[in-house]
Design the sequence.
């Protein structure tokens, strides 16, 4: 059995990790980490875990934790993982960080967009960006995984086949994205109260959202060119889900059929990326609770642009599910272990 510890198990992403790992036949959760609920029963924080989790919450002592487990998930705010990780820790356990601390390779870019000083830049280079569809082989050998952001996962997987094929102008990409409120975490914030979110939809972080450099960096690697995007996230009144609609100028004359073939080839071996039939638009309701990303593409011949669409569950493929997918690769397990639950509907 793989022994797992979760720092931040009392947040939304952490709770989703608990839910998924409880159904994973090769994993035993040994450490339910928290900051505010130390010594309290985990099931008193999340009643859905009543009679399923008898454990008591513990703190975030990573040095102690790494004596007791094989893998540590950090589902904590930006800056925490980088302040805890050390050579000693990495020599003993695998670390999968759900925050952004190790996603961006250039430390100045991280510090500029996140507004905080990086606490352990010496580990940025070795950290592997945990997008399994692209970095599978590197992930298998890693000690430290930077689990991708929710918007970046959905945006990147929607655009990736055309970026890689060199068919779109990488400075013309516009990503319009929408997220349910669980994306903002469980912490109390006025902006996330029911009356503030319900019956309304708004853009936020316009031209300043911290996921912009992450998406640009990954698209640059995929295309071999510098990607510069406009990224606009929106908050929508639903619990879970991310929807991406991305636009780009085509740089060659290609037919819809040719483009569909590129997507089919890119994703035919991918268990968790579902390339939909022509004309079917991805919807968050068809992926909720699952590790699937649904994508589709449409050429607008009139404007010579292409529209790339994606939908996924921000807490599963956008966070905990992707983290478990990474863990499976790190421990030589089938990548899909514990992750084949079908989407929930209605
Ligand atoms: N929500 C989402 O859709 C996604 C989230 N992520 C990332 O996952 C991480 C967690 O996000 P999310 O679950 O939404 O956030 P939440 O606010 O819901 O949860 C944060 C968790 O971190 C714990 N925590 C906060 N500060 C500390 C600290 N100083 N020491 C130890 N533990 C601490 C909290 O403990 P306590 O409850 O005891 O206060 C809680 O368990 C973030 O980095 C986020 O960017 C990534 C992709 C998607
Ligand atoms: C709706 C909402 O507020 N979403 C969050 C992003 C989700 C998240 O937690 O960020 P990471 O994926 O980088 O970890 C935000 O915009 O800041």
Sequence:
């Amino acid at each position: 059995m793989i022994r797992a510890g979760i720092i931040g198990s009392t947040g939304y992403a952490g709770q989703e990790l608990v839910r998924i790992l409880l159904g994973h036949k090769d994993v035993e959760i040994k450490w339910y980490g928290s900051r505010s609920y130390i010594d309290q029963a985990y099931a008193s924080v999340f009643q859905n875990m009543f009679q399923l989790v008898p454990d008591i919450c513990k703190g975030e002592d990573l040095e102690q934790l790494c004596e007791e487990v094989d893998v540590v998930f950090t589902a904590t705010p930006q800056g925490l993982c980088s302040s805890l990780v050390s050579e000693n820790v990495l020599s003993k356990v695998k670390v999968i960080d759900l925050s952004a601390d190790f996603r961006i390779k250039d430390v100045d870019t991280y510090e500029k967009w996140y507004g905080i000083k990086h606490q352990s830049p010496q580990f940025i280079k070795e950290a592997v960006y945990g997008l399994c569809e692209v970095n599978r082989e590197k992930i298998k050998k890693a000690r430290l995984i930077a689990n991708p952001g929710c918007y970046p996962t959905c945006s990147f997987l929607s655009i990736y086949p055309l970026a890689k094929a060199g068919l779109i102008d990488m400075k013309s990409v516009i990503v319009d994205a929408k997220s349910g409120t669980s994306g903002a975490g469980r912490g109390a914030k006025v902006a996330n109260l029911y009356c503030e979110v319900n019956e309304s939809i708004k853009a936020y972080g316009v031209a300043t959202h911290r996921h912009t450099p992450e998406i640009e960096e990954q698209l640059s690697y995929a295309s071999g060119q510098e990607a510069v995007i406009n990224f606009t996230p929106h908050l929508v009144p639903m619990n879970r889900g991310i929807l991406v609609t991305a636009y780009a100028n085509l740089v060659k004359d290609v037919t819809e059929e040719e483009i569909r073939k590129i997507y089919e080839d890119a994703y035919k071996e991918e268990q968790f990326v579902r390339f939909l039939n022509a004309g079917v638009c991805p919807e968050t309701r068809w992926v909720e609770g699952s590790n699937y990303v649904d994508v589709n593409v449409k050429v607008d011949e009139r404007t010579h642009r292409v529209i790339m669409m994606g939908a996924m569950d921000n807490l599963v493929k956008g966070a905990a599910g992707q983290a478990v997918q990474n863990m499976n690769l790190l421990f030589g397990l089938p990548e899909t272990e514990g992750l084949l639950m079908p989407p929930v509907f209605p």
About this structure: The domain at 151-313 is CATH 3.30.360.10 (Dihydrodipicolinate Reductase; domain 2).
